[in-house]
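Note on ligand handling. Small-molecule inputs were canonicalized before submission; formal charges were left as drawn, and no protonation-state enumeration was performed. Where a ligand contained multiple stereocentres, the stereochemistry in the source SMILES was retained. For S-adenosylmethionine, this procedure yielded the string shown in the input block below.
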Amino acid sequence: MIVSIAYIVFVILLAVFLILYVVYYSFDLRAFISQAPFVPISKSRIDKILSKARLKSGSTFYELGCGDARVIMHACLKYHVKGIAIDINPLLLLYSYVRSKIYHVPTISFTYSNFYDVSLKNAHTIFVYLLPSALHKIATKFTSECKKGTLIISHRFAIHEYKNRLVQTIDQNGEETFYYKV
Ligand SMILES: C[S@@+](CC[C@H](N)C(=O)[O-])C[C@H]1O[C@@H](n2cnc3c(N)ncnc32)[C@H](O)[C@@H]1O
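Structure output:
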């Protein structure tokens, strides 16, 4: 009897642990904690945003928090950049990886990581669509790791620490995108 109660308790605890694990890692909880949940950019805005960036073929394009990778895949396919797509949500990354195979994007690679832990020293262009609190945290990283001339594109939210480095702003139906040079 004691053994079977212990067994039931063990199974219940295991089930609770598994549920918490799946919720934490898959359903955007980590992104919420790091202040940037998955809200994808509208597809109709991507082309203009990238066209203003004057991307060079073969240059390295990072997307910090790539979501379903719609921006970086567009950059790879149209401008032939080398794409480094980073996200903390494994389900989104898996989905993006499958999409990159379906659309035959050879120059993209996916990194499952917290973007605060990824070195940015090889980036020529970095695209972000993050909340101001996350931008505030990552601005210091841009300054300390990016090489001079790296283009930072921030969709919807300005990076206040970078206001002296603003080179261009575009507005698409009230949604702004900010371009900064490190
Ligand atoms: C607002 S969505 C933008 C998605 C995509 N960039 C777009 O424009 O459609 C923010 C993304 O950042 C990811 N994210 C949030 N915090 C992160 C972190 N610390 N490291 C890596 N990815 C993160 C989320 O999982 C989410 O996919």
